[in-house]
């Protein structure tokens, strides 16, 4: 059963060699300056995935900032949302490569703390971007959107636009338990001026921030609450999905839709009246400030600390009194993705 | 590995010929070559710390791949094994809160073995194709996991449940008990497959189930035991996963089933059953780990890592096909 001809083993070896060689060589050409200069600052970046436009923008901005400061950026990512193992391996490999600082958008705010601790014990500073860890001081510093404030902006705009009409609120949430989701949700209610569980909230559903799921959820919620006039969405894909459902029901004039993110598609949707207003985040700022912090640490030993709000901006073409906002042409110039 | 090859090699041809005909030669050469290339490309690759990392990063998929090897040896495939392990981590985290670590471990092994029994029962009693059975259980188990977890992640307290993540040093080489556990699982299953009647029967059932049945092997019982064993192995993988990341996350390890198949196939075990073994799978696991780590150190985009791994899988299956055609 095991007696195989000699040629089998040889061809196995030859083919495998060819494959390995091809990629080994690709490896050589991929890193133009590995080795050589020990002085160069190396910064690692670990995103949740490498396909989400938000993280693409984050990576591009980090790369540009690293180039400007003469640092080398090594970008890694998990394979899918929730790939803690992939992020842990990425952190370990970055430490092995001798980076001085790691910027990470943690998939899980608590799942990768051991790896972060090992990295910090090895003398690497770790900075969380976009999503804070739990506890927050598991990393040296956090550069992220104040998601509560972003939620408050959304809530205030929807409330002001609704005016004196008695509110019937529907909330399309993201994923239960996510810190970002909780902050935005609570912020919206705060900005709107209602309590959690208030009678004004006529429907609530999780969408995972997914357009298709949001559309289905909204279609079903409209069956239950046809009088809805105020809509909270966790992000712009959820808002786009909800709009399709609302349009299908012929209720576009009745519902005021607010959202958060600031992607170029989202801003375009605000311009076209799909979303009433969105709150823009600034991934590029997170990345730039993160790279700068690592460079500064290497140069003069200054460690960054605490939470830095990279800000958010309400984007709408129908501004309301007393709320700072920018129009969609400003949004189109500053959007990401 | 194979006593026939050893006997034939000694009696008729020389020892060199015997080495050349060794089915593990291809994977082994690929591993050695990859190690040589990466040690030339990256200064840090051969550092003890980095080599230890490769082993630690291989633990969970490496353990799952042992179970996958058993199933593939019987000409089956297990698409559910990763999902079973993830469910195991959630069960362990929740039971730890309710009843302490020992209860948690017992509950995990119980649940994983029960799911192995479901797969095994459907395959052996109802005679359904393993691909379909495990595709169905994979989908159902994944959903059940999210229901059970309420789409949340659970932290596991440090202690017995995270024991496999504890590190220790042998000289300058620092590693974890998870790596030891992985090697022990390989050693144990290698022994069971190559030195016991049960192992012989697994090969016989995988090679030709009708022939095995006619020669008096209780093929159904043997097949069922393979699925039970795979459940046990999935539970060990779940334990190791919590050692590595002390959080049970229902979204974790989404690709673990496919990665385990990859390791098995690169290690030279035939997808048609009856040929191969866990030594090859260990080499396959290490090849994937070395490629991922080495290409990362070399600064190659992770997508190229997937392309490299994909090519290796196809090469390995092609080699297996040629070998089959020639031996028929």
From TrEMBL, chain A:
Record's keyword annotation contains Signal:
yes
Q: Name one Pfam family in it.
A: Peripla_BP_4
Task: List the keywords (alphabetical).
Answer: Signal
An MF annotation (GO) of this entry = carbohydrate binding
Where does it live in the cell? Cell envelope
Note down the stretches annotated as region Disordered.
308-337
Signal peptide as annotated in the record: 1-22
**Keyword Cytoplasm set for record:** no
Q: Name one GO cellular component term.
A: cell envelope
Where would I find the Periplasmic binding protein domain in this sequence? 43-301
Main subcellular localization, coarse class? Answer: other
Q: Which InterPro entries match?
A: Peripla_BP_I (IPR028082), SBP_2_dom (IPR025997)
Protein family per UniProt: Belongs to the bacterial solute-binding protein 2 family.
Q: What is this protein called?
A: Substrate-binding domain-containing protein
UniProtKB/TrEMBL annotation, chain B:
Q: Which UniProt keywords apply?
A: Cell membrane, Membrane, Transmembrane, Transmembrane helix
How does it sit in the bilayer? Multi-pass membrane protein
InterPro entries this protein is in? ABC_transp_permease
In this entry, which stretches build a coiled coil? none
Transmembrane domains' residue ranges? 20-41, 61-90, 102-122, 128-149, 170-193, 224-242, 263-291, 303-323
Gene Ontology molecular function, alphabetical: transmembrane transporter activity
Q: Which domain of life is it from?
A: Bacteria
**Would the keyword Membrane be found if you checked this record's keyword annotation?**
yes
Q: Mind telling me which Pfam families this protein's record contains?
A: BPD_transp_2
Asked if Amino-acid biosynthesis is a keyword of the record, the answer is no
Q: Which PANTHER family match?
A: ABC TRANSPORTER PERMEASE PROTEIN YPHD-RELATED-RELATED, RIBOSE IMPORT PERMEASE PROTEIN RBSC
Name of the protein in its database record: ABC transporter permease
Q: What organism is listed for this UniProt entry?
A: Arthrobacter zhangbolii
């Amino acid at each position: 059963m095991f007696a195989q001809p000699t040629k089998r083993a040889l061809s196995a070896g030859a083919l495998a060699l060819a494959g390995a060689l091809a990629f080994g060589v690709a490896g050589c050409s991929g890193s133009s300056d590995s080795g050589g200069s020990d002085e160069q600052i190396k910064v690692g970046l670990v995103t949740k995935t490498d396909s989400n436009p938000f993280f693409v923008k984050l990576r591009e901005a980090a790369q540009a900032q690293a180039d400007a400061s003469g640092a080398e950026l090594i970008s890694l990512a998990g394979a899918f949302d929730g790939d803690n193992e992939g992020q842990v391996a990425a952190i370990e490999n970055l430490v092995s490569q001798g980076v001085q600082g790691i910027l990470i958008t943690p998939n899980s705010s608590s799942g990768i703390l051991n790896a972060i601790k090992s990295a910090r014990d090895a003398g690497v500073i770790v900075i969380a971007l976009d999503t804070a860890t739990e506890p927050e001081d598991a990393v040296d510093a956090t550069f992220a959107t104040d998601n509560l404030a972003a939620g408050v902006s959304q809530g205030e705009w929807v409330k002001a636009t609704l005016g004196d009409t008695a509110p019937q609120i529907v909330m399309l949430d993201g994923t239960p338990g996510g810190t970002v989701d909780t902050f935005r949700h609570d912020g919206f209610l705060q900005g709107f001026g209602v309590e959690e569980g208030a009678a004004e909230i006529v429907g609530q559903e999780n969408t995972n921030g997914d357009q298709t799921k949001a559309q289905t959820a909204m279609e079903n919620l409209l069956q239950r609450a046809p009088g809805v006039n105020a809509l909270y969405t966790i992000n712009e894909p959820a808002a786009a999905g909800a709009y399709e459902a609302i349009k299908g029901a012929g209720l576009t004039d009745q519902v005021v839709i607010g959202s958060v993110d600031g992607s170029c598609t989202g801003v375009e949707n605000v311009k076209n009246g799909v979303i009433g207003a969105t709150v823009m985040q600034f991934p590029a700022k997170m990345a730039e400030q993160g790279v700068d912090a690592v460079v500064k640490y290497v140069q003069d030993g200054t460690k960054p600390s605490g939470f830095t709000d990279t800000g958010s901006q309400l984007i709408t073409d129908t501004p309301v009194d007393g709320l700072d906002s920018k129009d969609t042409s400003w949004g189109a110039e500053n959007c990401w993705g | 590995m194979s006593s026939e090859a050893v006997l034939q090699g000694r009696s008729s041809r020389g020892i060199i010929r015997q080495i050349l005909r060794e089915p593990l030669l291809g994977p082994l050469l690929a591993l050695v070559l990859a190690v040589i290339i990466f040690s030339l490309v990256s200064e840090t690759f051969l550092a003890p710390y980095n080599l230890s990392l490769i082993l630690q990063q291989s633990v969970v998929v490496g353990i799952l791949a042992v179970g996958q090897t058993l199933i593939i040896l019987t000409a089956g495939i297990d698409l559910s094994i990763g999902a079973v392990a993830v469910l195991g981590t959630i069960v362990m985290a929740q039971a730890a809160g309710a009843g302490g670590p020992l209860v948690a471990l017992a509950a995990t092994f119980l649940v994983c073995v029960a799911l192995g029994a479901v797969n095994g029962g459907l395959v052996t009693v109802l005679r359904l194709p393993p691909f379909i059975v495990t595709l169905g259980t994979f989908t159902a188990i994944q959903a059940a996991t999210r229901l059970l977890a309420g789409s949340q992640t659970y932290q596991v307290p440090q202690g017995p449940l995270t024991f496999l993540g504890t590190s220790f040093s042998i000289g300058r080489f620092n590693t974890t008990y998870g790596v030891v556990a992985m090697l022990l699982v390989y050693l144990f299953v290698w022994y069971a497959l190559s030195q016991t009647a049960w192992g012989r029967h697994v090969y016989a059932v995988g090679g030709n189930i009708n022939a095995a049945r006619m020669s008096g092997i209780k093929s159904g019982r043997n097949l069922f035991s393979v699925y039970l064993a795979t459940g046990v192995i999935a539970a060990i993988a779940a334990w190791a996963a919590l050692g590595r990341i002390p959080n049970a996350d229902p979204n974790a390890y989404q690709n673990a089933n496919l990665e385990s198949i990859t390791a098995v196939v690169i290690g030279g075990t035939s997808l048609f059953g009856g040929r191969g073994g866990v030594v090859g799978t260990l080499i396959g696991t290490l090849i994937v780990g070395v490629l991922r780590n080495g290409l990362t150190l070399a600064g190659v985009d992770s997508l190229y890592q997937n392309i490299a791994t994909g090519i290796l899988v196809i090469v390995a299956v092609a080699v297996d096909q040629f070998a089959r055609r020639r031996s028929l």
